């Protein structure tokens, strides 16, 4: 009897301790976190085993991304061709021929003009920059901050003179660096060319069999998981499709509006700046800032009135995009707060560079779809085992 009482007292102390720590579920979570950390530690010690896998993914990621973007852009056209009773393979052939024709037309007609403008801008940009610094120096010397600015004892002319003297040395060092890294450059260029060549083959099979892959994966899953997996695949496909198609259309609209606006106000390099705005607009929030910087420098050097006209054109473009185009095309599909998007861009950019900045938002959208659905399943399971109805999750949210 005494031993049984002592055992019960011991069990009571143990139960009280477990309750104090948050219950058995909390202990289970803590032990799981420790096991996950231990597994990560082990994998970190044997990471060399996964080096071939890392090389494989780094090699295929570029063609897969390019083929995926092309797939979501061309899939609506393929579906339209199928509606008019054109077989899928013939529809893919028509799409490929049309795409090659459009690319050839752009290369022959638009690319030479853009190349000429780009070369001229590269040659003249140092002059623009120098004039900008001189104008800024003149403004500060004749402003209310002149006394503070003169105390800094900044001689802009001597800065440019010393810079011109060091151009020869800079060019020599640069050429030497290029020569030493030519092997790496050739290797990277070879990998890029191979990736581009691989894209049409991947795209062909994605257009031909892309819609069969989710069904195949769903059939491999246990029957109990198939309905939920199908919902996740459909939501993810909708998110990626809406984002890519909407983003490309919005980017083209911004590029066209900026080019037309700059041509109207007489801005130099209007078409080139419009193309720059089109490409940089794929990066939310940060893209417009990158696009407008060279335009501001050119406008300031040209005349103060040109800067005012630039501000008017840019404001009109942003208003049309923010109030009409983006809400109608992109809609509220991502349901993501701007602060969240900025944090995603900064984190993805730090981890994966330019690719992370471009792919961070659609990647976040995919993760959000999966996590949201898993949380929905958790709420259903929680309500099932929670007896107090007042403590139930509202599944309509």
In words, what does this structure look like?
By secondary structure, this protein is mainly alpha-helical. Helices cover 85% and strands 0% of the residues. It is built from 16 helices and no strands. Helix 12 packs antiparallel against helix 13 and helix 13 packs antiparallel against helix 14. About 2% of the residues have low confidence.
Quickly list its features.
mainly alpha; 16 helices; 85% helix; 397 residues; single chain
State the gist of this model:
The protein is mainly alpha-helical and 397 residues long. The protein contains 16 helices and no strands.
Record the SSE blueprint:
Blueprint: H1 2-20, H2 24-45, H3 51-83, H4 88-109, H5 111-141, H6 146-151, H7 156-165, H8 167-180, H9 182-209, H10 212-220, H11 223-265, H12 270-280, H13 286-302, H14 304-329, H15 338-352, H16 354-385
Distance between the termini: 55 Å
The low-pLDDT segments are 5-13
Average residue pLDDT? 76
Could you describe the largest sheet, including whether it forms a barrel?
A: none
Shape: globular
- What structural class should be given to the helix and strand makeup? mainly alpha
* Sequence of secondary-structure elements: HHHHHHHHHHHHHHHH
Q: Tell me the Rg in angstroms.
A: 30 Å
Strand content: under 5%
- Estimated helix fraction: over 70%
The count of strands amounts to 0
């Amino acid at each position: 009897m005494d031993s049984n009482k002592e055992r019960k007292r011991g069990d009571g102390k143990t139960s009280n301790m477990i309750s104090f720590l948050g219950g058995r579920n909390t202990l289970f979570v803590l032990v799981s976190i420790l096991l996950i950390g231990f597994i990560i530690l082990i994998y970190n010690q044997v990471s060399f085993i996964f080096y071939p896998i890392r090389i494989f993914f780094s090699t295929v990621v570029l063609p897969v991304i390019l083929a995926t973007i092309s797939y979501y852009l061309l899939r609506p056209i393929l579906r339209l061709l199928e509606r008019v009773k054109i077989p899928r393979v013939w529809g893919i052939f028509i799409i490929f021929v049309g795409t090659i024709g459009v690319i050839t037309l752009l290369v022959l007609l638009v690319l030479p003009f853009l190349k000429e403008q780009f070369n001229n801008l590269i040659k003249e940009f140092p002059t623009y920059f120098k004039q900008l610094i001189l104008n800024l120096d003149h403004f500060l010397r004749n402003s209310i901050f002149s006394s503070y600015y003169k105390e800094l004892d900044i001689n802009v002319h001597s800065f440019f003179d010393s810079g011109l003297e060091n151009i020869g040395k800079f060019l020599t060092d640069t050429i030497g660096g290029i020569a030493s890294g030519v092997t790496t450059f050739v290797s990277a260029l070879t990998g890029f060319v191979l990736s581009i060549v691989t894209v049409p083959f991947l795209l062909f099979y994605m257009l031909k069999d892309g819609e069969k892959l989710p069904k195949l994966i769903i059939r491999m899953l246990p029957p109990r998981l198939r309905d939920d997996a199908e919902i996740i695949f459909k939501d993810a496909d909708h998110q990626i499709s809406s984002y890519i198609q909407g983003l490309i259309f919005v980017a083209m609209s911004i590029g066209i509006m900026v080019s037309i606006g700059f041509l109207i106000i007489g801005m130099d390099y209007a078409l080139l700046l419009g193309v720059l705005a089109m490409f940089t607009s794929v990066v939310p929030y940060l893209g417009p800032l990158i696009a407008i910087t060279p335009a501001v420098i050119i406008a300031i050097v040209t005349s103060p009135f040109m800067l005012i006209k630039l501000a008017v054109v840019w404001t009109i473009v942003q208003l049309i995009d923010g109030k009409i185009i983006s809400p109608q095309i992109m809609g509220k599909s991502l349901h993501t707060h701007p602060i969240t998007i900025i944090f995603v861009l900064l984190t993805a950019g730090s981890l994966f560079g330019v690719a992370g900045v471009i792919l961070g938002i659609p990647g976040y959208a995919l993760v959000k779809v999966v996590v949201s659905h898993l949380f929905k399943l958790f709420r259903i399971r929680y309500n099932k085992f929670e007896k107090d109805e007042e403590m139930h999750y509202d599944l309509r949210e």
